[in-house]
Specification:
10 helices, mainly alpha
Length: 334
Amino acid sequence: MNTVKQFFWFCSGANISLLKRCPTEASKFTGIGATVFFTGILAALSGGYAFYTIFENAWWSAAFGLLWGCIIFNLDRFIVSTMKKSRKGKGQELLMASPRILLAVMLAIVISKPLELKIFSKEIDRKLVLLEEDIYQREIASIDQRFIDQTQLLQGQLAALNADIEAKRTKRDELATIARQEADGTGGSMKRNAGPIYQIKKADADQAQAELNASIQNNQPQIERLQMELADLNKQKATELSAIKRNPWDGMAAQLEALRQISLENRAIYFANIFIIALFIMLECSPVIVKIMAARGPYDELLEVREHFFKNHNLEKIAQMDYETRERLKPLLS
């Protein structure tokens, strides 16, 4: 039991030799040390899970988690060990502790995020499927948008050329029908004959046929060229669409984005997310807060005496060295 207690004293950054002389302070520093130690354990789990999410290697994740836990443990131990009770009041202590509290808050957020991802992993996985499909559809839409202008231009030119041919074909058909009706007596003069009127209408129909042939002769090569360009464009578009891969979108950044979106969509998850972060912030800040709220105790008095002793001892040694130096220089200066 004493070994565990002394280990927690070490975690709290206290001077063990002084703390043994202050039994009334033992519980306070045991609690502070336990908080620092278990925060490091949570940080190791959080860092290991985050590393495993990225690299999916259990051994490297365990090694990184252990390293990350040691880093957080050392930072927390540094924060609480450098805080000393002041005789100037709690306001001065709070002012001096504010940078440490800010650092503790940042560490709490960093530690809590990977654990939040694990807690809400099922909801995140479902959201990732939707986000992955959304990214896939956006890539398709981007390719479609890139080709749509060229496609519409080619289709417009084809439509204009075909419309010109169809207009002349319609005119030819109308004039041919009028000439035939004039010849068989069903239209025009209503007399069945191939007289001068028929010849005039037949000439108009022949002229329309010649214009149609000329239009086909002129437009058909352009139509074929445009059709080939359109086919090549569609082939290129199909190639790019087929090259799109549904890569799994499940990295750390993707999971954080999914967590952000489901937090906005679901108020229960939103508040749970806030409470988890607040819990880790309180856990990380608790050793600092305890040190600020606790009254000045025997350990703080002994620590101040020890530091004051070393300070005075240092001043005495400097003064003695100065005196000895002056004594050695007196014969040289006289």
